[in-house]
Amino acid sequence: MEQTVVRCAEGHVFSTASFPMQQAERLGPGRLVRCPKCARLRSVVPVALEKR
User: Fold this and answer.
1) Does the pLDDT of residue 4 top 70, yes or no?
2) What is the pTM (predicted TM-score) of this model?
């Protein structure tokens, strides 16, 4: 399963394998995922990683 790097509403950046429905455009990029740093369900969005 592919890991996705995301940022929660509090600004914490982490990776998750459970970022469902990434291609659902009508729902927007945000999803609810449990943040491991603040231990709450938070709205998260994918982080654009720069290529080096």
Assistant:
1) yes
2) 0.69
Contact call for residues 6 and 46 (beta carbons, < 8 A): yes
* Dist. CA 17–CA 30, nearest whole Å: 15
With a cut of 80, say whether residue 46 has pLDDT above it. yes
Q: What is the DSSP letter of 37?
A: T
Contact call for residues 21 and 27 (beta carbons, < 8 A):
yes
Q: Are 19 and 8 in contact (CB under 8 A)?
A: no
Q: CA 28 to CA 21: how far, in whole Å? A: 10
Q: What are phi and psi of 25, to 5 degrees?
A: -65, -35
Separation between Cα atoms, residue 49 and residue 36, nearest integer Å? 20
